[in-house]
Amino acid sequence: MSGRRVLVTGGASGLGRALAERLAARGERVLVTDLAPALEVPAGALYQRLDITSFDDWAAALDRVERDFGGLDLLVNNAGIAAGGRVDRLDDAHWRRVLEINVLGTVNGCRMFAPMFKAQQHGHIVNVASIAGLAHPAAMSSYDASKAAVVALSEGLRHELRPWGVDVSVVCPSFFRTNLAASLGGDDPLMERIAARLIARAPLDATEMAARVLRGVDAKRFLVLPDRPARRAFWTKRLARPLYDRRMIAAGARIREIELGADATIQEAP
């Protein structure tokens, strides 16, 4: 698979950085992008600042790819933010931020590079979603909705672009250890503390997750479920829906207990 021309968004840290490092080590020509004006990147890789919500930044990235690579073989739409919170605690600004970054940021990359891939008659779009895009936990409504949109986008693009020789994959991992919790916006601190603990206690780190993700991408699988908890959630929902519903409702009940306990603590405080 060596020698491919690759663009990775959100490459400053976490899964994006781990993917960029692994791809560059394999001999791929990698353009790493993120919000920082400058960034130390893996040996042999290039860097460009890219705000995924800015179509002008995407146009500049396309120009860079054409100038330095002469085309692109693999687009990895990895950049995004974590989000959590009970629906009544999330305001309009929260929803707009999550959807603009997680959904429209991914859409922008697909829109920008689809014409190039179609002209080349080959290419591969990899959209990083989450198992939350397939199985929807309570108190994560904005994140659930944004990642479900990425899954739907990816499926539609798979059908649309396959006749042009273009592959599409969507990656749906469960929690893994990364700094993603740092992007939580403080809209519902109670639920965000729970999410941060789940991320910190996850069995896999970003490097291990990147290796698993790339195995699925290299095999050109559409749905990449890179870890056991993600596969278990997906297949439980698909094959044992009553069990899935019971577990999800039970999780919602636990959140209710936490919420009532937190409110009681606040009311009893002097």
- Major beta sheet, strand line-up: 3-2-1-4-5-6-7
- Mean of pLDDT: 92
User: What is the helix tally?
Assistant: 8
Main structural class: alpha/beta
Describe this structure as you would to a colleague.
Helices cover 52% and strands 12% of the residues. It has 270 residues and is an alpha/beta fold. A 7-stranded parallel sheet has the order 3-2-1-4-5-6-7, sandwiched between helices. The chain is globular, with a radius of gyration of 19 Å. It starts with a strand and ends with a helix.
Question: How are the SSEs placed, and which strands pair?
Answer:
Elements: E1 5-8, H1 14-25, E2 29-34, E3 46-49, H2 55-68, E4 74-77, H3 92-120, E5 123-128, H4 141-161, E6 166-171, H5 189-200, H6 206-218, E7 223-224, H7 228-239, H8 241-268
Parallel strand pairs: 1-2, 1-4, 2-3, 4-5, 5-6, 6-7
In short:
The chain is α/β, with parallel strands linked by helices. The protein has helices at 14-25, 55-68, 92-120, 141-161, 189-200, 206-218, 228-239, 241-268; strands at 5-8, 29-34, 46-49, 74-77, 123-128, 166-171, 223-224.
